[in-house]
Amino acid sequence: MAASRTEPRSFPRPSGPIRSSRIGPLEERLARLGLVSDWDFLLHLPIRYEDETRITPIAELQAGIPAQIQGTVRSADMIHTARGEQFSAWVQDESGSLTARFIYFYPSVKQQFLPGRVVRLYGEPRRAYAGGLEMIHPKVRAPVSDVRDLPHALTPVYGLGEGVQQHWMRKQIAKRLLDLNGVAELVPEAWLKKLNLPTLRAALEYLHQPPPEADAGVLAEHDGPYWARIKFDELLAQQTALREMRKLAAGASAPALLPNSSRSLTSRFLERLPFPLTGAQERVWRELAADLEKTRPMRRLVQGDVGSGKTVVAALAALRAVEAGRQAAIMAPTEILAEQHFENLKRWLEPLDVRMIRLSGSLKAAEKRAALEAIASGEAEVAVGTHALIQESVRFKDLGLAVIDEQHRFGVAQRLKLRRAESDGEAPHLLMMSATPIPRTLAMSYLADLDVSVIDEMPPGRTPVETKLVRIDRRSDVLAVVRGCAESGRQVYWVCPLIEESEALDLTPAVDCRTALEAALPGLRIGLLHGALAPEAKRLVMESFEAGEIDVLVSTTVIEVGVDVPNATLMVIEHAERFGLAQLHQLRGRVGRGGGRSACILLYDPKLSETGKARLRVIRESADGFEIARRDLEIRGPGEFLGERQSGLPLLRFADLERDGALLEAAREAAAEMLRADPESARRLASRWYASASNLLCA
Ligand code: ADP
Ligand code: MG
């Protein structure tokens, strides 16, 4: 923690006028833009274009539409204004005249505008204050000798980092475009024909140097066959990488986890369970059991909406590992959730004489050492903890199964890490669980190395949660509802507004929020839970809430996942507009857990825009996590959705999963086919895009 806080200080962002001395050598600046190899430069596609292929008569200029003109300088002057010196030149062609104005300029600009010279200007004309048209800071080409000497392609404008010049970048990229022989066409011709796509060379040439007649609108929208070609290449690379990962996993061997009649843990567990499995739970358990019997490591994601009962399924899988004589590890993204899993599972597993151990940050050094020893000796049969369980220092005697709960918080990087934690060539089976339903396009794209099972049925007795949108200025009405709820013996979650993504930084609003509620609700027992609390303190707060010793639990989003207190029937979320839709759905899932009629109140800022309100209405109107996730994806985009830093695989640069769903489907098919017919080319294509991630392929 301390290390990550001081990090920004040791890498100050360059600022102020003395930038050039701090930005480092050119290579470093380029690396920051992701520009290392020739391929990187070629993929540095223009952000827009300037049309310098034609000259517009001044009389035909339209305010706001960039254009190029050519005329003779009639006069040029320095002007003194309140804001300092400006340079202004009057330029005339046969049709009319305009003023070129410079607020910032080098002295040399005067040489370019010597009266009588012919100049060519590119810029955005606008109505001048004093009447007539002007261009501010136009691009100047002067003097012009040959009138017909115009470029044959639109001029690309590239994204630039600090200390990189536009003309330098153009030259670098143009140089590489001259020799595209190194850029082999790796996509089979049949696919290009089928999808009606140009070759990679043609696409790169077109996008960097579009012909004058190119449709600027189509290019700006990243539409049309040339963009599609680039996107297809990218998607194909991604699908190939994911397939390769999957194949590597499949090549490893795993222990076959078979039912055991002498220590029949799974069947005894099912007999003792106070409720029958739902049909969906039963089906998914059958799928898991079948995977676990194989000597190929399972890689399966179980998706099920909040409250669908994933924990039971995980417990069954863990028990199967134990009855087969192996260990199981269950990992959760937060200490609180790990704690809850431990307590719940203990209730279920201890009567079956399964030896469990907890590995968490709240353990004292000696306890931790003992836990690690028990894991290494095999004394511990089921270990529950945070992702600390996949750290280097944790050695299992013979891990048969790893369960990762709320996998969207983990991502591919951890999947790979886990694989590395394998002991002598044998991989554990891997079960991932997620309550954040991942929309199909995303699942195909980022989870292509996994099999997916869905728990699409809720246990009986779940009460639908009534959701209300209330303006924050009606807080006092809401406080009355909270009091009524607490006085009838129910408990309440009060979720504080989200300020920062980091759990550690949202301390102040939570503390303030508690103080305010204590003042507004005298007599009620109010607890506080936030990410900056020590793990032990968090556990104590959760325990008293579970025991009913707290009426209102003020909390940040640390309760977002997994927490299960059926007596809590009301949730208030302050500034709901600051949360993502999927997150609101997860939060709301904490109530309606069988404790009677439940409600969720979303407090919103009255200044909220119409679209903002429309978003919140999605939550009010839908209880379907998939539908909500789909809308969330639409609104926020996949980067946010999966958490870029956690996904482990670079997110897509050019393709857009929502818009380019059809290309993704095609790429998926093509990747499978290419890996079969021409694996060499498929791998070359993937490593072209993921050069820096090539270790990912052999992890
Ligand atoms: P999630 O899928 O969100 O992790 P949990 O596993 O926490 O859901 O289950 C939510 C609640 O439903 C728990 O209290 C659990 O005991 C209960 N539950 C799970 N399966 C069933 C079932 N088949 N019938 C009744 N209750 C169930
Ligand atoms: Mg859960």
Plain-language structure description:
This protein has 699 residues and is an alpha/beta fold. It contains 27 helices and 22 strands. The protein has 4 domains: 8-49 and 156-221, no CATH class; 54-150, Nucleic acid-binding proteins (OB fold (Dihydrolipoamide Acetyltransferase, E2P), Beta Barrel); 265-455, Rossmann fold (3-Layer(aba) Sandwich), CATH 3.40.50.300; 465-622, Rossmann fold (3-Layer(aba) Sandwich). The longest helix has 28 residues, at 224-251. A hairpin with a 2-residue loop joins strand 2 (67-81) and strand 3. 39% of the residues are buried. It binds adenosine-5'-diphosphate (ADP) and magnesium ion. Adenosine-5'-diphosphate (ADP) is lined by residues 275, 277-278, 281, 304, 306-312, 435, 459, 562, 564, 593.
Number of helical regions: 27
Mean of all residue-level pLDDT scores: 82
Over all CA atoms, what is the radius of gyration? 31 Å
Provide the CATH topology of the largest domain: Rossmann fold
What is the name of the CATH class of the largest domain? Alpha Beta
- In CATH, what is the homologous superfamily of the largest domain? P-loop containing nucleotide triphosphate hydrolases
Largest sheet, if any? 7 strands, mixed
Poorly predicted regions are 1-23, 500-506, 639-650, 692-699
Strand order of the largest sheet: 6-7-4-3-2-5-8
Helix content: 40-55%
The geometry reads as globular
Structural class: alpha/beta
Strand proportion, as a percent range, falls in: 15-25%
Q: Span between N and C termini?
A: 27 Å
For the record, the CATH architecture of the largest domain stands as 3-Layer(aba) Sandwich
State the domain count.
4
Q: What's the β-strand tally?
A: 22
Ligand inventory reads:
adenosine-5'-diphosphate, magnesium ion
